[in-house]
Amino acid sequence: MSQPIRIAVVGSGYVGLVAAVCFAEMGHDVICVDNDESKVEALRGGDTLIHEQHLPELLDRYRNNRVQITTDLAEATRTCQVIFIAVGTPQSETGDADLSYVEAVASEIARSINGYKVVVEKSTVPVYTNEWIRRVIERNGVRREDFDVVSNPEFLREGTAVEDFLHPDRIVIGADSDRAAALLSEVYAPLTSGSYYTHPSCVPGDCSDHHPPPALMTSTKSAEIIKHASNAFLALKISFINAVSNLCEAADANVEQVARGIGLDSRIGPKFLRPGIGYGGSCFPKDVAAFRSVAEQMGVDFNLLSEVEKINANQKKRFLAKVRSALWTLRGKRLAVLGLAFKGETDDIRESPAVDLVEMLLAEGSMVVAYDPAAMKRAATELPPSPQMRYATSVEDAARDADALLILTDWTEFGELDLQRLHDMLRYPIVIDGRNLYDPQTMLQHGFTYLSIGRPTATPSREARNPLPESTAVGA
Ligand code: UDX
Known about the structure:
This protein is an alpha/beta fold. The chain has 18 helices and 14 strands.
């Protein structure tokens, strides 16, 4: 490969830590900076702090050699040529992204610049942030010719972050100077040239030396918008299919069939058409709100995004109504809840619709026994254990004697339950599935009353012979 580049990555959350170890995996020398001493200690000791495939092995391989972990941003700035900012951009009360961490890091970088540096926005930021970073660095006395600001957004998903980083659909480099664009192209050359994929120990994925990822060169502002627009579009796709699922329920159609029919159109595609209890996580809710707010500030009507948010919030209320329609009253009912994470295969509960729904169920007076393979420790901070809220040790422990079982997260293992055993354990064989993990016919054959999203309810003949209107239905 070409010469290794000395790279600093500021922030060691999902994006920063994954970027740091992946740059090392690509052959570069990396300094990972975080101002949290305890985090730095943990990372140096090999604790990744997050649940992410391939991350433990990569951290183990590179920590304290090709990846140095430190709190010293000044030293990292002086020794590195490219500095990636990957700190948090949380949502402020108005929906805007709070950029105070980005600003603080930019000022600190500015005070240590000792030659030409490229400062790269990796965090998701609104358009114009690059100009603010530039202004902040200049205000700190750095000459314009001594730095450039580049936008290089990250599209990784939690759970598959390492694979997404090393096998991306595209690499977006938003740079307004040729010098900065060339340096960033060099950083990504091991991927774009395909050379990384020829290493026998490379992380497997869709890219190869024959099909390397393309690099898209844009202006910085376009790159900033690409990131927000991508997430907003994906959120829109989910809200769209959720709205269609509501129509399917009203019309007695099947949203799985409809989604397949829509997705086979190559212009639409089959991905992100899974209906459910709404999107969550650290990105979509925050980024849709921030994009809407940016548009508003710039005088652009983007009410479409408000509708996306409205449909998403409504999905949880509709699910609660579904639970009520199966169980009549909720006070005192013992409900088994499978899943607390915002999606499967992660321990992240940020903006998790599952956590919101448990809060709603508790407010209705239900007794919840929840199980999640990875997210219970984190969930306990939001939903502390109490006589009303218990954490189970297994699916069976949650299901035993429950009045109904609710599936709120699409963990693979929740789609592979032993249905006969489950039927025997539940007090009443009622499953309300917010993620459509089962085929209604199969559930019916196993004797369950099965409610899901956008598909007709499956009810054993005894109940079907005597149906009740939803508002007065008695499931148990
Ligand atoms: C997302 C983007 O995919 C990623 O590109 C960006 O960098 C960060 O945000 P992530 O939040 O990790 O990644 O999860 P993702 O797999 O995209 O799912 C987001 C939410 O949408 C989850 O709550 C998921 O359950 C939901 N979802 C996803 C659906 O409800 N239906 C779908 O069809 C797909």
